[in-house]
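Progress note, sequence design subtask.
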């Protein structure tokens, strides 16, 4: 079984994000970039399925600038067999990315596509769902367990107040939640080996996909700075302030 894993290059989760002075977006100059954490979980799950003998090949795919090769090399070091970069310097919206991933799905014909549930930069949580709709495949989102059985996959989903297990016919789309697994670190020998694994670069035009945007970002703003708190000396003072100053009780 072939698994396609979608990995996104995002601002590292440890970085304190700065908004550009003209509010047009986030300042990416000299900022550490990494693989989206939910995509790391997606790669890990694919590698575990290969280790169990369920998967035979893992293809990592990313849509993004040339530099996204770094995240693909990380996926290769973690256990993917080859990688595909759909190269575009443009800021693409989710639908354009889903269309490009659909074109790669058509080309590669994977049985399972694993994506993160959400990219931590734009928090869209929609690419997997859009890809499922475009490809007509079943979808299991927010997965906390994935079990392939023959031509079907059981996906346990984290939903409000509990877990739901769905049974999908392959080929299918799965998006990963936080508790699906704990991703491994790439070992130095595997990082070296990854440099020799195949990485193909494609352009959106070669895939016949128009990436014209249907969404325009109007403004990006940092949250309002929080004013400093105060310390009160007693519960009575606290109640007095809540009642008479904050007027919340
Ligand atoms: P989003 O819908 O943007 O929150 O992203 C959800 C998931 O879709 C990510 O965790 C990735 O697996 C995938 N994805 C989003 N954007 C890209 C991209 N540019 N390249 C590859 N995969 C992506």
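Output:
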């Amino acid at each position: 079984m072939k698994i396609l894993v979608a990995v996104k290059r995002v601002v590292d989760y440890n970085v304190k994000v700065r908004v550009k002075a003209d509010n047009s977006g986030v300042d990416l100059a000299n900022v550490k970039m990494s693989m989206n954490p939910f995509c790391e979980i997606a790669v890990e799950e694919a590698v575990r399925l290969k280790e169990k003998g369920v998967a035979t090949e893992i293809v990592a795919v990313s849509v993004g600038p040339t530099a996204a090769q770094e995240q693909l090399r990380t996926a290769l070091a973690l256990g993917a067999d080859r990688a595909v970069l759909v190269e575009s310097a443009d800021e693409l919206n989710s639908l354009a990315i889903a269309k490009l991933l659909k074109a790669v799905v058509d080309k590669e014909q994977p049985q399972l596509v694993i994506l993160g549930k959400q990219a931590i930069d734009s928090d869209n949580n929609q690419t997997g769902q859009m890809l499922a709709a475009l490809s007509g495949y079943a979808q299991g989102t927010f997965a906390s367990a994935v079990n392939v059985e023959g031509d079907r996959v059981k996906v346990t989903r984290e939903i409000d107040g509990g877990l739901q297990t769905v049974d999908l016919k392959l080929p299918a789309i799965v998006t990963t939640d936080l508790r699906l697994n704990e991703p491994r670190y790439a070992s130095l020998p595997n990082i070296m080996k990854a440099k020799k694994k195949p990485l193909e670069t494609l352009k959106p035009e070669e895939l016949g996909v128009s990436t014209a945007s249907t969404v325009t970002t109007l403004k990006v703003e940092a949250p309002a700075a929080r004013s400093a708190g105060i310390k009160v000396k007693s519960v009575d003072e606290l109640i007095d302030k809540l009642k008479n100053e904050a007027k919340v009780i």
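DSSP finds six helices and eleven strands in the chain. Work on this subtask will continue into the next period as scheduled.
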